[in-house]
Amino acid sequence: xxxxxxxxxxxxxxxxxxxxxxxxxxxxxxxxxxxxxxxxxxxxxxxxxxxxxxxxxxxxxxxxxxxxxxxxxxxxxxxxxxxxxxxxxxxxxxxxxxxxxxxxxxxxxxxxxxxxxxxxxxxxxxxxxxxxxxxxxxxxxxxxxxxxxxxxxxxxxxxxxxxxxxxxxxxxxxxxxxxxxxxxxxxxxxxxxxxxxxxxxxxxxxxxxxxxxxxxxxxxxxxxxxxxxxxxxxxxxxxxxxxxxxxxxxxxxxxxxxxxxxxxxxxxxxxxxxxxxxxxxxxxxxxxxxxxxxxxxxxxxxxxxxxxxxxxxxxxxxxxxxxxxxxxxxxxxxxxxxxxxxxxxxxxxxxxxxxxxxxxxxxxxxxxxxxxxxxxxxxxxxxxxxxxxxxxxxxxxxx
Length: 399
Fold this sequence. Notes:
- By secondary structure, the protein is mainly beta.
- The protein has one domain (3-397): 6 Propeller (Neuraminidase).
- The protein has 2 helices and 28 strands.
- It has helices spanning 3-13, 19-22; strands spanning 53-54, 65-66, 80-89, 92-97, 103-107, 111-116, 126-132, 137-142, 148-152, 155-160, 170-175, 185-190, 196-200, 216-220, 228-231, 237-242, 248-252, 263-268, 294-297, 302-308, 320-325, 338-342, 344-347, 350-353, 356-360, 365-370, 376-380, 390-397.
- The strands form 8 sheets. It has a 4-stranded antiparallel sheet, with no helix packed on it. It has a 4-stranded antiparallel sheet with strand order 4-5-6-7, with no helix packed on it. It has a 4-stranded antiparallel sheet with strand order 8-9-10-11, with no helix packed on it.
- The longest helix has 11 residues, at 3-13.
- Residues 1-60 have low confidence and may be disordered.
């Protein structure tokens, strides 16, 4: 799709059913760049609440659910339930699911936990520290060769367990010296072309950033070579997903005060410019560049995103996007922290996005992935206190 086609598409979006939500929001928004608590050391190690499998009723295909009551704090549409399947993480930030089913959880201040499902029932009994890094971790991705990519402050790392003992013993900085400041490099995804796509936030709030790699989506070979800017004009792009058609979608966090601009869902195209900084007045995200596919609200801090192409949920949910809204510690978000469902309407002029609440009751949900059985895994950062813990939930369609 050409840039001109995209502009026509985005103009149509402004008249789409999404306006039913957008009318409840103001024209400005903000992101999580300064809305996070100061760094602190954890006061306790991770502990787990394991589940045991039981056969659910009226699920096609079936998925295991723990023999415990669903989480009472999480509200969902009828026919769905959320189960807390692992807890005790200190400010968790990202989930990575390897092809063999191994699950990794990153903790913000430099630890990656390997989550252990000893009996293979899809629930996790314990964890071990797989890797530790300097800098803050905001993205993980399993490598095709069995390693693990880690997006940590200012660098993309590739770590491996070369001796097979379950913990990484090799770490290579394959992309060093990325610009960072107010924001940093965050989520990453492997594209259909075999290349890595990496978000890199701006170093400032509203300014002309001197490094052309700031506020961009970067593309790079799996070994770290041939780094280039794929798309620009994104203030703090946080996470990425490819849908079944091979289209790339990204969440992007808007400006903080005094400008306050909306968080965005963007359909990313090669060479696209999404308008940040936002024109001469610096406060209008719709004045320059490609328009957002959806308005995600003010101060909502849109973070994790995934395209649902599994079979466990009913057909109406397939090809939907799911997005976590992390919220804010220092401002009132226009939508509470939640998991959004984003159906995509395929039209003659391109995809049109709608937005609706799917799950509420989290403290600060930060990432979401589709498990191999088609259930959703949602990672909750927690309240952010020094003694607070984060939790991993499994959302199952129970019929």
